[in-house]
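Input sequence (126 aa), recorded before submission:
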Amino acid sequence: MNTTTIEDFLALYPASVQKNALLLRQVILRQLPRIGEQLDLPAKMIAYSYSPSYADLICVILPSKKGLKLGFNKGPEIPDPEGLLQGTAKTTRYVVIDNPDQITSPGITKLLTAALKQYEKRKARL
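Predicted structure, C-alpha coordinate format:
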Protein backbone atom coordinates (compact mmCIF):
# COMPACT_ATOMS: atom_id res chain seq x y z
CA MET A 1 0.00 0.00 0.00
CA ASN A 2 1.68 3.19 -1.18
CA THR A 3 -0.76 5.85 0.01
CA THR A 4 0.59 8.94 1.68
CA THR A 5 -2.27 11.37 2.18
CA ILE A 6 -5.36 10.95 4.29
CA GLU A 7 -7.50 11.40 1.19
CA ASP A 8 -5.58 8.64 -0.62
CA PHE A 9 -5.94 6.37 2.40
CA LEU A 10 -9.68 7.00 2.67
CA ALA A 11 -10.12 6.39 -1.07
CA LEU A 12 -9.65 2.68 -0.28
CA TYR A 13 -13.04 2.67 1.46
CA PRO A 14 -16.66 3.09 0.30
CA ALA A 15 -17.83 6.64 -0.50
CA SER A 16 -20.05 6.84 2.61
CA VAL A 17 -17.11 5.87 4.84
CA GLN A 18 -14.89 8.47 3.13
CA LYS A 19 -17.50 11.21 3.54
CA ASN A 20 -18.16 10.41 7.19
CA ALA A 21 -14.45 10.10 7.98
CA LEU A 22 -13.70 13.52 6.49
CA LEU A 23 -16.56 15.09 8.46
CA LEU A 24 -15.39 13.37 11.65
CA ARG A 25 -11.88 14.64 10.96
CA GLN A 26 -13.21 18.21 10.82
CA VAL A 27 -15.05 17.78 14.12
CA ILE A 28 -11.95 16.33 15.83
CA LEU A 29 -9.65 19.08 14.57
CA ARG A 30 -12.14 21.72 15.72
CA GLN A 31 -12.68 20.17 19.18
CA LEU A 32 -9.06 19.35 20.00
CA PRO A 33 -6.96 22.52 19.66
CA ARG A 34 -3.48 22.05 18.16
CA ILE A 35 -3.90 18.27 17.99
CA GLY A 36 -1.48 16.41 15.75
CA GLU A 37 -2.85 14.19 13.01
CA GLN A 38 -0.93 11.12 11.89
CA LEU A 39 -1.80 8.48 9.33
CA ASP A 40 -0.90 5.02 10.63
CA LEU A 41 -1.03 2.81 7.54
CA PRO A 42 -0.09 -0.52 9.21
CA ALA A 43 -2.88 -0.02 11.77
CA LYS A 44 -5.26 1.37 9.10
CA MET A 45 -6.20 4.39 11.17
CA ILE A 46 -5.84 8.14 11.48
CA ALA A 47 -4.45 8.97 14.92
CA TYR A 48 -4.89 12.21 16.87
CA SER A 49 -2.24 12.93 19.48
CA TYR A 50 -0.36 15.73 21.20
CA SER A 51 2.99 14.05 20.45
CA PRO A 52 4.27 11.17 18.32
CA SER A 53 4.00 8.94 21.40
CA TYR A 54 0.98 6.68 21.83
CA ALA A 55 0.91 7.83 25.46
CA ASP A 56 -0.41 11.17 24.18
CA LEU A 57 -3.00 9.63 21.85
CA ILE A 58 -6.50 10.99 22.32
CA CYS A 59 -8.53 9.29 19.60
CA VAL A 60 -8.42 7.54 16.23
CA ILE A 61 -10.59 7.30 13.14
CA LEU A 62 -10.96 3.66 12.15
CA PRO A 63 -12.42 3.21 8.66
CA SER A 64 -13.38 -0.20 7.29
CA LYS A 65 -15.25 -1.57 4.30
CA LYS A 66 -18.31 -1.96 6.55
CA GLY A 67 -18.24 1.41 8.28
CA LEU A 68 -16.48 3.80 10.58
CA LYS A 69 -15.48 3.92 14.24
CA LEU A 70 -14.17 6.70 16.44
CA GLY A 71 -11.81 5.08 18.92
CA PHE A 72 -10.71 6.60 22.22
CA ASN A 73 -7.44 5.88 24.02
CA LYS A 74 -8.06 5.40 27.74
CA GLY A 75 -11.75 5.05 26.84
CA PRO A 76 -12.72 3.39 30.14
CA GLU A 77 -11.64 6.61 31.93
CA ILE A 78 -13.88 8.87 29.83
CA PRO A 79 -17.26 9.89 31.26
CA ASP A 80 -19.98 8.66 28.88
CA PRO A 81 -23.39 9.74 30.23
CA GLU A 82 -25.09 9.01 26.88
CA GLY A 83 -23.70 5.47 26.72
CA LEU A 84 -22.10 5.90 23.28
CA LEU A 85 -18.85 4.06 23.98
CA GLN A 86 -18.63 0.38 23.11
CA GLY A 87 -16.02 -2.32 23.55
CA THR A 88 -14.40 -4.23 26.37
CA ALA A 89 -10.70 -3.70 25.69
CA LYS A 90 -8.59 -2.75 28.69
CA THR A 91 -7.49 0.67 27.39
CA THR A 92 -9.79 1.62 24.49
CA ARG A 93 -13.42 2.22 23.67
CA TYR A 94 -15.09 3.23 20.42
CA VAL A 95 -18.24 4.71 18.92
CA VAL A 96 -19.70 3.13 15.80
CA ILE A 97 -20.47 5.96 13.38
CA ASP A 98 -23.61 5.35 11.35
CA ASN A 99 -24.44 8.72 9.83
CA PRO A 100 -23.32 12.36 9.50
CA ASP A 101 -25.88 13.61 12.04
CA GLN A 102 -24.27 11.42 14.68
CA ILE A 103 -20.84 12.90 13.91
CA THR A 104 -22.05 16.45 14.52
CA SER A 105 -24.16 15.50 17.55
CA PRO A 106 -23.52 16.92 21.02
CA GLY A 107 -22.70 13.40 22.22
CA ILE A 108 -19.56 13.15 20.06
CA THR A 109 -18.53 16.68 20.99
CA LYS A 110 -18.90 15.86 24.69
CA LEU A 111 -16.83 12.67 24.33
CA LEU A 112 -14.02 14.54 22.58
CA THR A 113 -14.06 17.24 25.26
CA ALA A 114 -14.09 14.63 28.04
CA ALA A 115 -11.21 12.72 26.38
CA LEU A 116 -9.16 15.92 26.24
CA LYS A 117 -9.87 16.65 29.92
CA GLN A 118 -8.84 13.12 30.91
CA TYR A 119 -5.63 13.49 28.91
CA GLU A 120 -4.87 16.82 30.62
CA LYS A 121 -5.43 15.21 34.04
CA ARG A 122 -3.04 12.35 33.18
CA LYS A 123 -0.38 14.82 32.00
CA ALA A 124 -0.76 16.92 35.14
CA ARG A 125 -0.03 13.86 37.29
CA LEU A 126 3.28 13.18 35.53
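Checked by second reader. The mean pLDDT is 93.
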